[in-house]
Amino acid sequence: MKITLENQPVGPFPAMIAGAVLNAKPTYTTVGAGGCACLEPVLCVSLKDTHYITGGIAQTGYFSVNIPSAALVKEMDFCGMVSGKDVDKSVIFKSFFDPAGNAPMIEECPLNFLCKVCDSKQIRGFTMFFGEIIAAFVNDDCMTQGKPDPIKIDPIIMMGFNYCDLKNIIGKPFSEGKNIRA
Ligand SMILES: Cc1cc2nc3c(=O)[nH]c(=O)nc-3n(C[C@H](O)[C@H](O)[C@H](O)COP(=O)(O)O)c2cc1C
Description:
- The chain is mainly β.
- It has helices spanning about 50-60, 75-80, 150-155; strands spanning about 15, 15-20, 25-30, 35, 40-50, 60-65, 95, 105, 110-125, 125-140, 145, 145-150, 155-160, 160-165.
- β13 (about 155-160) and β14 form a beta hairpin.
- The longest helix is centred in the first third of the chain and has 9 residues, at about 50-60.
- The radius of gyration is 17 Å and the shape is globular.
- Flavin mononucleotide binds next to β3, β5 and α1.
């Protein structure tokens, strides 16, 4: 069945919260348009040019990508409903910084990436910032055998105007397809 997208890509997309400093304070914005950019450690976030956070990233050259767990769905949604132009979003979370203080990260989020802008691309009123990951942090209680555990991290997936959580691990990359003969 062919479907009408009504101006919204259907997903799935992981819900992320981008962080940056603007006017000497952390600010946080919900992002669905972004993720992994290539095989090198580079993430991207696509942000409307008129958003408050966009000016902060352009000024400092740094942003964070914070992965909220399902328990943070309300806070994550709120960061996508109000603008830092009107609301001080620095008070929603506890922020922590890398030693150089380049971009704020969210203590409550189980997974955080600090990114240094290495490229950007204008696309229909949005700027897609590409950021080299210069530090990554995972909450201790979200690790299993020394690795980030997806079920413990419990990220939020957006699809078809819904927020969903991860139910189960269903396989391993480059393994599940091995027995298919084409
Ligand atoms: C689930 C969700 C996903 C969003 N994804 C994006 C996105 O990828 N890019 C974007 O520019 N805005 C996105 N938005 C909208 C911004 O988060 C929203 O307009 C926000 O209030 C802008 O905040 P700011 O002006 O403080 O930067 C999203 C909002 C929600 C609720």
